[in-house]
Amino acid sequence: MRFKNENMQRVKFKSQDGDLFYKTLRKRVNQYFKENGIKRTGNWAMYLKTVVLFAAFFTPYFCFYFLPEQPIYIYLLQWALIGLATAGIGFSVMHDAVHGSYSIKQKLNNNLGHFSMLFIGGTVANWKIQHNELHHTFTNVDGLDDDIKPPVPFLRFSPFSPKSAVHKFQHIYAWFFYGMLSLVWTTTSEFKQILKYKNSGFYDNKTKEYQGVWSWIVFSRLFYWTMFLVLPVIFTSYSCLLYTSPSPRD
Description:
The chain is an all-alpha fold. The chain is built from 8 helices and no strands.
């Protein structure tokens, strides 16, 4: 399905049954948890997963500074581990926290979501609109679901998107562009997003909230690039900018 929203207006589904389907589904889901004695929020396995992922992220990161005398291949392997851990934090910690899955206390979920976002270069406010509201409400609806909007024209995620001959090979080169998504996310995309959401009406009568999101986007960019670029360049000898191979005479 393709939806053309030229005026950038908020879109809502028109219920034909007074939301009966949603109410029935929610009732059955709650009943399932109750009958099986399962918590609706996280269990020990979820908390353990969180500890492991953050440990996999911070351990190699701090090794850069406290164990500086390492072979370059160990240094590169540590960066690879940080990359995998970052993906895990995004998919399995931040995502679950922003969905409110860790605790019945929303403050805890929000704090963990903001904390996780600092290390993957995103913003909770934008994510909630893009993922929780748009993606889950208009799943795979072209023009409304930002998750199927390709970051570059070389990728095509919807049969309603413009098609070119190069898309025939995207299963080969898409991996490279997926690897570049964090660079796009941490530079320009979130600034474009908040402007788009403002024009779409998500921040109508919410001036302070809108200004607060702008402030957090700027702060999180500064934090992210300081952590991943500035500090390694200044305090380690292995950065791409400073590393030089020892000469044979050394």
